Amino acid sequence: MQIFHRATNTLAKASIFGGLILVGTLLWACIQIQRSPYVTYQHVARPQPVPFSHEHHVAAIGIDCRYCHTSVENSSFAGIPPTKTCMNCHSEIWLGGGMLQPVRDSYASGKSLIWNRVNDLPDFVYFDHSIHISKGVGCNTCHGPVDRMPLMYNEGSLQMEWCLDCHRSPAKNLRPQEQVFNMRYEQPTTQKPLLYDGKVYTDQMSLGADLVTKYHLRTVADITSCSTCHR
Amino acid sequence: MMMEEQNGKPHKEDVCPGKKDKLNLETANAQIEETKGPEFWRSLEELAGSGEFQEMMHREFPKGASEWLDTVSRRGFMKLMGASLAMAGMTACTKQPLEPIVPYVKQPEEIVPGKPLFFATAFTLGGYAAPLLVESHLYRPTKIEGNDKHPVSLGGTDVFSQASVLGLYDPDRSQNVIHLGNVSSWGQFKEVILATLKDQSASQGAGIRVLTGAFSSPALADQSQAFLKLYPQAKWHVYEPVNRDNAYEGAKLAFGQPVDTQYQLENADVIVTLDADFLYAGFPGFTKYARDYAKRRDPDSGNMSRMYAIESSPTSTGLKSDHRLPVRAVDVEMIACQLAGSSGGSLSGAQAKFVASVVKELQAHRGSSVVIPGEHQPPAVHALAHAINAQLGNVGKTVVYTDTVVANPANQTESLKDLVADMKAGKVQWLIVSGVNPLFDSPADVNFADAFNGVPNRVHLGLYQDETAEQCHWHINETHYLESWGDTRAFDGTVSIVQPLIAPLYDGKSLHELLGVLSDDAQLSAYNVVQDYWRKQHPGSDFDLFWRRSLHDGWVQGTTYTPKQVSAKSENFSQTTTTRSTFSSGGPASAIEINFRPDPSIYDGRFSNNAWLQELPKPLSKLTWDNAVWIGPVMAERMGVATKDLVRVEVNGAKVDLPVWIQAGHPDNSITVFLGYGRKRAGRAGTGAGFDVYPLRTTATPYFTTGAQVTKISGTYLLASTQGYQTMDAGDETRPIVRTATLEEYKQHADFNEEKPPAELTLYPGFDAQYKKEPYAWGMTIDLNSCVGCNNCIIACQSENNIAVVGKEQVNHGRHMHWIRVDAYYQGDRSDPQAYFQPVPCMQCENAPCELVCPVGATTHSTEGLNDMVYNRCVGTRYCSNNCPYKVRRFNFFLFSDWDTPQYKMMRNPDVTVRSRGVMEKCTYCVQRISEYRIKAEESGTTDRNTDGDLKTACQQSCPANAIIFGNINDANSQVSKLKAKQRNYGLLDDLNTRPRTTYLAEIRNPNPELQG
Amino acid sequence: MADLMQVEPGEQKPPVIAPGHNYGTVTDKIADVVLKKPVSLGWLGGLFVCFLILQWMLYGVTLLFFKGVGVWGVNIPIGWGFAIVNFVWWIGIGHAGTLISAILLLLRQSWRNSINRFAEAMTLFAVACAGMYPIFHLGRPWLAYWLFPYPNTMGYWPNFRSPLVWDVFAVTTYGTISLVFWFVGLIPDLATMRERTDKKILKYIFGMAALGWRFSARHWSRYETAYLLLAGLATPLVLSVHTVVSFDFAVGIVPGWHTTIFPPYFVAGAIYSGFAMVLVLAIPIRKFYNLGDFITERHIENSAMVMLGTGWIVAYGYAFEAFMNWYGGDVYEGFVRFNRFHGPYALTYMALLFFNLVVPQVLWIRKVRINNFWLFLISLDVLVGMWLERFVIVVVSLHRDFLNSSWGMYYPTQVDWAIFIGTLGFFTACIFLFMRVLPAISIFELRTLLPEAESVKHE
Question: What is the ipTM metric for this complex?
Answer without folding.
Answer: 0.91
